[in-house]
Design goal:
Blueprint: H1 5-43, E1 50-53, H2 60-65, E2 67-68, H3 82-89, E3 94-109, E4 112-115, E5 126-137, E6 142-145, E7 149-154, E8 157-159, E9 161-165, E10 170-173, E11 178-180, H4 181-187, E12 196-198, E13 204-206, E14 210-212, E15 220-228, E16 234-236, E17 248-249, E18 253-256, E19 259-267, H5 269-276, E20 282-285, E21 295-296, E22 304-311, E23 319-327, H6 343-347, E24 351-359, H7 360-374, E25 377-380, E26 383-384, E27 390-394, E28 397-401, H8 412-415, E29 442-450, E30 474-476, H9 479-484, E31 506-509, H10 513-516, H11 522-526, E32 531-536, H12 544-561, E33 564-567, E34 572-580, E35 590-598, H13 601-638, H14 640-648, H15 653-685, H16 694-719, H17 743-753, H18 755-786, H19 792-800, H20 802-828, H21 830-838, H22 843-877, H23 882-902, H24 904-911, H25 916-920
Parallel strand pairs: 7-15, 19-31, 22-29, 28-34
Antiparallel strand pairs: 1-32, 1-33, 2-35, 3-19, 3-26, 3-32, 4-18, 5-6, 5-7, 5-23, 8-12, 9-10, 10-11, 12-13, 14-15, 15-16, 16-17, 20-29, 21-22, 22-31, 23-24, 25-29, 27-28, 30-35, 34-35
Length: about 900
């Protein structure tokens, strides 16, 4: 080792680099495999394994790409019958079958409280305040003004309406005054129960409680009249007293209408509790009972009262701003005298007062707490259904197609029953089964509140977009849109026609469906269920047995019911780019990212990670052994005279073998120490976490690697006849004598002289070319399949970084092996080259001869490696595409070129050989 320091240093360097690369690669491969398989094993399963929907429900995107948009059920109303659900429950292997029936959107007036106490000027005899509400949503981008309302405050006495006599069409006031309905309607068009004001001169005038811009306009403005008492309290005079005294108000708080559309759904409480743990999400009140039937309500016209759960929070950034101003002529609301145009009330700015601003989520929380505690009911008049959004492909993005709102949303009388945002640019069409009956359908009794986030806590990576109670995640998709949204997500709103749909916010049981669906179309009434989510029994891990169980159950469901059945086991989230159209009230077009669901991703990833890791690890092991074996073989051949002398001096075979193995083991130990010191820094430099325990592994790998690689050369040195070691290392006897007419034929003959060494170099090159071909093909194949998914980010990082570094290392090792083989051939055939020089061969001809030998080795290794890679790709990917053929051809040609180039350095050595080799011969 000391006398051949150059060769020893080369062996140590080769083993050190190979061992360092091996340890770093195995560390990266292990981490990536554990990450992918571990994440899949822990999170491959969401709440359910199979999704059953009505036949024909799958959209074009889902059919073509396997993509499911979040909250897909928000646009699916009915389609499955209760009998079909029971048939699914009866199938062997079904552990849970939880149905969900999307009923429709229910409009609720949350009643925004506006405190005007400190805005009243108590010095004035009469004053008129205008309340101008504006709904703000979409992170402040959308601002929709609503119809102004008015508050009339007077110190004069107000006489409220005590009763209305239908048969006589007469308003009866608290002091006994009777006014005909015809007179009241002429003096105050659109009036309901206007009070009388006693003026300072004793004259009495009607205070209109509703005002209209003109006789032809349907827009009406509410007027609330309050009497300011000398003690500073207020009395509301626009209520029907029925003989009771007017309530005294310490503070003047008026309730401004705040409409919010809530999605109502029906579930089976028992199945849902087992599937998603919804019963554990109750924050107040109680959970639903499966057998709880609607109870008859009170009043003149009793309607069913259905039990309901409500979410305790609205996932929305929507807020209502009420601008308050005082108008200079409060008498405009009185019916007496000549009134100027009412437009002055709505256009004139007046004196601005501090506005009122409240987030609707806060208003909802207050409303829910108040209604739950008091047992108040939700009046449900209209139940509205909407369609799913439609998309147009726009390059790599999906452009959301605007939908035309129905005619009814263009009139103020109808929009008052919905959120003001409903008149914005529609991205969902309202269904044809709108219940337009003004009579009350049902009353909802809130029996409990729940936190939907509890349902998915701990399962953030489990296909969350398909969870029934999770709000969609929509973020800015480019710099402009992110800036417009203030770097925050786009949240659902109260609009029934908006894009981002909230999950169900009101839940009832299946027993309430007949009452809720009164007036709905026959199809939804007969088949009210939107989907059934199935959990298969006996699935405790993500393996072939579990997948087969799910497949068998899904197949039987499809055969029995004829419905659309999807296996969602192993689904994962994937980011889709969407383009939303501009709104009518300030929101610009937005490019956003939304997390969709790609069905079955986890199954693909598990197989892909296993195959790639196994193949690359095997290639690294084989290449390392071949490289070191070639280096040790070269050292043995270089010392053939020394070994022959030792054999002649009586060294036995085992001692000669021990000499070679001992030297190799010592070189391996030195290389192992160096590799151990390099492993962690190199891994850190490429961004991989490798534990310090890998240092011990590096030492063992290096020693074992050199011993295995040196075993065959050691046995060859020990088993040969001593005198044979003194002969040249070429095998001239195996080559048939004859005239070599071309340099190429001489190159082929040269590579056949030591076929084992040539084969070793060709195999090393073939492995490198195969690894290069396989890595490039896998990268191109999987780039479109797993990019942007929750589980795919880690895998794609491995493919693009570590695998490429590994392939480059394999190529470098193989080319070095080819160069070493050619260098040994030049040294061992020095006499032959000297004869050729003496007979007139030019230096250029000798250089071409050595380079052509490298080209022959390159063709053997390149073609073989490219072919092996194509076979591997065909086996793992299921076929060969023209692109893969081009990749294989390109990498094979690249390998041939590199092998030919590797012969240039040994060829240059030929020109420097002294002529003494000829004299020695």
């Amino acid at each position: 080792m000391r006398h051949r320091a150059g060769r020893s240093l080369a062996v140590v360097s080769a083993v050190m680099l190979a061992t360092t690369g091996f340890c770093v690669l195995t560390g990266a491969t292990t981490a990536s495999r554990l990450q992918a398989v571990g994440v899949v094993q822990a999170n491959y399963r969401s709440a359910y394994d199979i999704l059953v929907r009505p036949a024909g429900t799958r959209g074009e995107l889902e059919t073509r790409q396997g993509l499911v948009r979040p909250n897909f059920l928000s646009g699916q109303f009915g389609g499955l019958s209760l009998d079909q659900w029971r048939n699914i429950q009866a199938i062997n292997g079904v552990e849970i079958a939880a149905p969900v029936a999307m009923v429709g959107y229910v409009s609720v007036d949350l009643g925004l409280p506006v405190d005007l106490t400190d805005r009243v000027d108590r010095r004035l005899r009469q004053q008129l305040l205008r309340l101008s509400p504006e709904t703000v949503a979409d992170r402040g981008l959308t601002r929709v003004p609503s119809t102004p309302a008015f508050v009339y405050v007077t110190r004069n006495r107000l006489i409220p309406v005590r009763d209305f006599i239908n048969d006589r069409q007469v308003h009866v006031y608290a002091d006994g005054t009777e006014l005909s309905a015809d007179y009241v309607s002429r003096r105050c068009p659109a009036a309901s129960q206007p009070p009388l004001e006693v003026l300072s001169d004793g004259h009495r005038e009607l205070v209109c409680d509703w005002l209209r811009d003109d006789s032809r306009s349907p827009v009406s403005h509410a007027v609330r009249a309050y009497q300011l008492i000398d003690d500073g309290t207020f009395r509301d005079a626009t209520v029907l007293t029925r003989g009771r005294a007017l309530p005294v108000m310490e503070r003047l708080v008026v309730r401004q209408p705040a409409r919010f559309s809530l999605l109502a759904a029906a579930i089976d409480p028992d199945q849902e509790a087992r599937l998603s743990g919804l019963n554990r999400a109750i924050t107040s009140g109680r959970y639903l009972n499966a057998d709880e039937r609607p109870q008859p309500g009170g009043g003149e016209h009793p309607v069913p009262r259905v039990p309901m759960l409500a979410t305790d929070r609205l996932v929305s950034d929507e807020e209502m701003t009420v601008a308050i101003s005082t108008l200079p002529e409060p008498g405009l609301v009185r019916a007496g005298g000549d009134r100027p145009e009412l437009a002055r009330l709505t256009v004139d700015a007046g004196a601005a007062l501090p506005p009122e601003r409240r987030a609707l989520s806060t208003v909802w929380a207050d409303w829910l707490a108040s209604n739950t505690a008091s047992g108040e009911t939700i009046d449900i008049h209209d139940v509205v259904t909407v369609t799913s959004p439609s998309y147009d492909q726009d390059g790599d993005a999906l452009r959301v197609r605007p939908a035309d709102p129905p005619e009814r949303l263009r009139s103020a009388a109808d929009t008052e029953r919905f959120s003001p945002l409903a008149v914005d640019t529609a991205m969902r069409a309202i269904g044809d089964d709108i219940q337009t009956d003004q009579e009350l359908v049902v009353e909802g009794t809130v029996v409990g509140a729940l936190d939907p986030l509890v349902v998915t806590k701990g399962r953030e990576l489990t296909g969350a977009p398909m969870e029934t109670f999770v709000a969609p995640s929509v973020s800015g998709g480019d710099r402009r849109s992110s800036s417009a949204l203030g770097g925050q997500n786009l949240l659902p709103t109260s609009s029934i026609t908006g894009y981002v749909a909230a999950p169900p916010q009101l839940l009832t049981n299946l027993m309430s469906l007949p009452d809720l669906l009164r007036g709905a179309d026959a199809g939804q009434a007969q088949s009210p269920l939107s989907a059934v989510r199935v959990r298969v029994a006996g699935i405790d891990r993500f393996d072939a047995v579990g997948r087969e169980r799910v497949r068998v159950v899904a197949e039987e469901i499809a055969e029995r019911t004829g419905l659309d059945v999807d296996i969602v086991l192993g689904s994962s989230a994937t980011r889709e780019t969407l383009v939303l159209p501009a709104g009518k009230y300030g929101r610009p077009p937005l490019t956003v990212h939304e997390m969709w669901t790609e069905k079955g991703v986890a199954a693909v990833l598990v197989r892909a990670v296993d195959r790639k890791s196994g193949i690359l690890l095997g290639m690294v092991l084989i290449t390392c052994v071949l490289f070191v074996s070639n280096a040790v073989s070269a050292a043995v051949r270089d010392r053939r005279r020394e070994l022959a002398v030792l054999a002649c001096l009586g060294w036995p075979a085992h001692r000669l073998a021990a000499l070679i193995l001992g030297e190799a083991g010592l070189l391996g130990a030195l290389a192992g120490v160096a590799a151990g010191l390099l492993t962690v820094p190199v891994a850190t430099a490429v961004g991989i976490e490798v534990p310090w325990s890998r240092v011990a592994v590096a030492f063992g790998v290096a020693v074992a690697l050199t011993l295995v690689a040196a075993l065959v050369p050691a046995l060859r040195a020990a088993g040969a006849y001593p005198a044979a070691a003194l002969q040249p290392a070429v095998a001239a006897a195996r080559v048939r004598a004859g005239t070599q007419r071309t340099i190429l034929r001489m190159a082929v003959t040269g590579t056949r002289r030591v076929p084992g060494r040539t084969a070793l170099a060709a195999v090393s090159l073939a492995i490198a070319v195969a690894a290069l071909t396989f890595a490039v093909a896998v990268d191109l194949t999987f780039k479109g399949r797993i990019i942007g998914t929750v589980l795919g980010d880690g895998v794609s990082l491995t493919v693009r970084e570590i695998d490429r570094v590994t392939v480059v290392g394999l190529v470098v090792f193989s080319i070095t092996a080819v160069a070493d083989v050619l260098y040994l051939g030049v040294r061992e055939r020095a006499t032959e080259f000297a004869v050729l020089q003496a007979t007139g061969w030019s230096d250029g001809a000798l250089v071409r001869l050595v380079s052509l030998e490298g080209l022959v080795i390159g063709m053997l290794g390149g073609v073989t490696g490219g072919g092996v890679a194509l076979v591997a790709i065909s086996f793992f990917a299921g076929g060969i595409t023209p692109a893969m053929l081009l990749v294989a051809a390109g990498t094979a040609g690249f390998g041939v070129l590199l092998a030919a180039t590797a012969g240039l350095l040994p060829a240059v050595l030929v020109r420097r050989m002294p002529a003494r080799h000829l004299a020695d011969e």
